[in-house]
Amino acid sequence: MPIIEPEVDIHCPEKAKAEELLKAAILEELDELPAGQLVMLKLTLPEQDDFYADCVRHPNVLRVVALSGGYARAEANDRLRRNHGIVASFSRALVEGLSAQQSDAEFNAMLDGSIQSIFEASNT
Amino acid sequence: MKTLGFNEQQLQQMKTHPGFIAALDQSGGSTPSALRLYGIKEGAWSNEDEMFAIVHQMRTRIMTSPSFTGERIIAAILFENTMDRDIERRPTADYLWNVKRVVPFLKVDKGLAAEKDGVQLMKPMPELAALLDKAKAKGIFGTKMRSFIKQANASRHQGHREPAVRSSRADHRRRPLADHRAGS
């Protein structure tokens, strides 16, 4: 199962326009896949909420996931919550706040809170 | 067909289970900054092997944490070095699925090429076939590959469409790992 990640830079000066071009290109490729051939997409959280809804419901897409891309966890979660059917695939936002200097109890508590907040933001 | 059963279970989990994916796949270039954020300064290691050993300790701490389970984390993306190491004396992918019920994915790209036309495509992956064979043997369910779009520049899209999608589809045809229907 491939996850295809064409990340759009969150600092892209015309991010919404880049997303339009990208979505059109992705849908064009998806439409050429044989029936039953599934892929996953990993995308930057878009400027317009639910912008990738066509990808989420495409029959060749198993799941659409979102990268955090440099957004801090709170903002990444806020944006994710507004994009229905997309779940997180966070890296930086997941480990934010974890440190080698923490005791195991502190570390585990911090990670648990982080996991729960991303889990909740994914379930919309 | 024991493995087919595993694949089907993993496919179902990816399709329907609530939760999210933990991306733990920062590799060579991004590892120093990941470690810095974790409170380990550059200089704590004297070569790449030591750096990867430290980053594996960090990831082991995350993956063995009681909260890190398939209940809320449906999958994790690893990079090759993590896949090649063990967690609690089991290969990482085996540990993730059989202990934690987290579906293991592998980042297979070799990083980004230089920017051209507002985009950084993936570097060539000449050893992809061998890497996929190894990943499959280790119980990896899927792959991940990333390209990076910096500008809203349509020039390449019209002629070439989205490069990552295209290359992935080619992989599909060639490699059973990328195709869930192939099972095994």
Q: Please, could you describe this protein's structure?
A:
The complex is a heterodimer of chains A (124) and B (184). By secondary structure, chain A is an alpha/beta fold. Chain A has a single domain (3-122), classed as Alpha-Beta Barrel (TIM Barrel). Chain A is 43% helix and 20% strand. Chain A has helices at 15-31, 53-56, 73-81, 92-95, 104-122, and strands spanning 2-8, 39-44, 61-67, 86-90. A four-stranded parallel β-sheet of chain A has the order 1-2-3-4. The radius of gyration of chain A is 16 Å and the shape is elongated. Chain A starts with a strand and ends with a helix. Chain B has 184 residues and is α/β, with parallel strands linked by helices. Chain B folds into two domains: 1-107, TIM Barrel; 109-179, no CATH class. Chain B contains eight helices and seven strands, in the order αβααβαββαββαβαα. Chain B has helices at 2-16, 31-37, 48-63, 80-83, 92-100, 128-137, 155-160, 163-174, and strands spanning 20-24, 73-78, 86-87, 90-91, 103-107, 119-120, 142-149. In chain B, strand 3 (86-87) and strand 4 (90-91) form a beta hairpin. In chain B, helix 2 packs across helix 3. The interface between A and B is large, with 59 and 58 residues.
